[in-house]
């Protein structure tokens, strides 16, 4: 039979107006000019944060105190030195590899388990106490277990990232599958749709927003956990770079690395937010 097509596959233009008498399609204008206050608000927030940083570390701090090592001026010098040295790029590559590998494992396990749990109420009720118990354990609590099982190196860090990311993906997938309208499934089966066509044309479009939201949440949490996990027996990565700077008493390097970690995390979240939104929303935003 002919597969059931989703609205995205049909590429319907929801915002399109009816055709005019002359046969031309007229489009509604959905974009609005951004007020100047809204455009300046992020810039103002950043300026205020930088001003507070400078005031606390360069004005309030007593001369010769350690707090002055975290001021903007020495941090900027350390940041320039790190970028010229190039080692921060190698550390960033190592961190991104561990993040990607851990997220891949978490997505494979979380989607599979979440689909089973969401599809069967008895399975959901039976696994809820154990899952809630495991979910509330800090991922870093598993660090000694991961090191005991996998030794030192990339493997325990990847395992900790996967243990962090699996829960939002699993819970979001189960919630999305649980919210699929049974009437839609019955209609698809009544039209003779195969199991794969039901999954592709009914189940996936219904559960997709929940799953993508869980993946984005998992990316953010995993990036936060990755840095302290890299302080456990590895010789590369941004977490290791911070630990190494602390051992060398290079406090301005620590602040510079914190800035790098924050900027990379912000970029990752912005990219994930754009990539994981439905195709129709991406097309509307691009207009």
TrEMBL record:
Record keywords: Cell membrane included? yes
Matches recorded under InterPro entries: MetI-like, MetI-like_sf
Give start-end of the signal peptide.
Answer: none
| Residue ranges annotated for the ABC transmembrane type-1 domain, each copy included | 92-272
Q: Which CDD domains match?
A: TM_PBP2 (cd06261)
Keyword Calcium assigned to the entry: answer is no
Disordered: where is this region? 1-32
Q: How does it sit in the membrane?
A: Multi-pass membrane protein
The protein's UniProt keywords, in alphabetical order, are: Cell membrane, Membrane, Transmembrane, Transmembrane helix, Transport
Transmembrane segments annotated in the record for this chain: 34-56, 96-118, 130-151, 157-177, 221-243, 249-268
Subcellular localization, as worded in the UniProt entry = Cell membrane
Family, per entry: Belongs to the binding-protein-dependent transport system permease family.
Record-linked PANTHER family:
ALKANE SULFONATE ABC TRANSPORTER-RELATED, MEMBRANE SUBUNIT, TAURINE TRANSPORT SYSTEM PERMEASE PROTEIN TAUC
* Protein known as: ABC transporter permease
